[in-house]
Design goal:
Layout (H helix, E strand, L loop, with lengths): L1 H8 L8 H14 L3 E3 L15 E3 L1 H8 L6 H25 L2 E5 L2 E5 L5 H15 L4 E7 L3 E5 L1 H6 L13 E5 L4 E7 L8 H10 L7 E7 L2 H5 L10 E4 L6 E3 L10
Parallel strand pairs: 8-9, 9-10
Antiparallel strand pairs: 1-2, 3-4, 5-6, 5-7, 7-8, 10-11
């Protein structure tokens, strides 16, 4: 199969770690329309542990002719149709992406997973609780990040490797001069004491206060992690978008 890919798609491959080779090969097969991801549930994110792959139907028919008299004819037929096939799958993947407005530009997040919640953070949480704030970083399930204003972070006094354990969303609330670090919990955990310590270490160069927020799609989703949430952090639930849950802080009791 690798020889076929190299010959017909102009790709070259070199030995690497097993995991790197696996990831590279899967992406190459997807790009070449040799396999399709999650045919049973297209909205499932690629990095989900439940992700499955299925060989594309016409590619399967091609491989079934290998070693027979039909092989050369099948290759010619397959290659004649592959551009259309690749375009079709690319369009389907693009149509299922989630559009969001970031810094005046429409960008898209890969479908499913935490990106469903990230879209709500950008469209619902940010305008209400960080009005006028500047989006510095927005993670993406498939592509690591959809937006990263590295220069803005440097201006705040810190340089961070974007491939590190970044929060899912970072907002500079300029009116208060706070840096708001937001985790979107769908498959991984909340800002617990360990994660809080890690974030403080990661952003130790920042000279302005850090505000840490764990977000959930629903109260039901929050219940599973309630005992883990760190003190002096906040929680936002998308289904109750107008409220924040404040885990203690400067005031033990206050009126509303």
């Amino acid at each position: 199969m690798m020889d076929f890919m190299a010959q017909h798609y102009g790709k070259t491959y070199k030995p690497n770690t097993r995991e790197t080779v696996r990831r590279q090969t899967v992406h190459q097969f997807l790009d070449a329309a040799l396999i399709v991801a999650n045919p049973d549930e297209p909205s499932r994110p690629i990095n989900s542990p439940k992700t499955v792959y299925q060989i594309e139907e016409s590619a399967l028919e091609l491989l079934r002719t290998y070693g027979t008299e039909e092989w050369e004819k099948s290759i010619r037929t397959y290659l004649a149709s592959i551009k259309t096939l690749k375009k079709q799958y690319a369009q389907e993947r693009e149509m299922s992406r989630i559009p969001v407005m970031i810094a005046g530009e429409i960008k898209t997040l890969s479908p499913g997973g935490q990106n469903i919640l990230i879209e709500k953070i950008i469209n619902d949480f940010a305008p209400r609780f960080t009005p006028g704030g500047k989006l510095i970083y927005v993670g993406d399930t498939d592509e690591k990040f959809a937006h990263f204003d590295e220069a803005a972070l440097v201006d705040l006094g810190v340089t961070i490797d974007s491939h590190g354990k970044m929060p899912d969303v970072i907002i500079h609330l300029t009116t208060n001069n706070w840096l708001v670090l937001i985790e979107a919990v769908t498959s991984h955990g909340p800002i617990n004491p360990k994660r809080k310590k890690d974030l403080k270490s990661l952003f130790r160069g920042v000279k302005i206060p850090l505000v840490m927020v764990t977000t959930f799609l629903s109260r039901k989703a929050m219940v599973e992690y309630l005992a883990e949430i760190a003190w002096e952090t906040d929680v936002w639930v998308a289904e109750d978008a107008t409220h924040l849950i404040h885990f203690n802080g400067e005031h033990l009791l206050q009126s509303y």
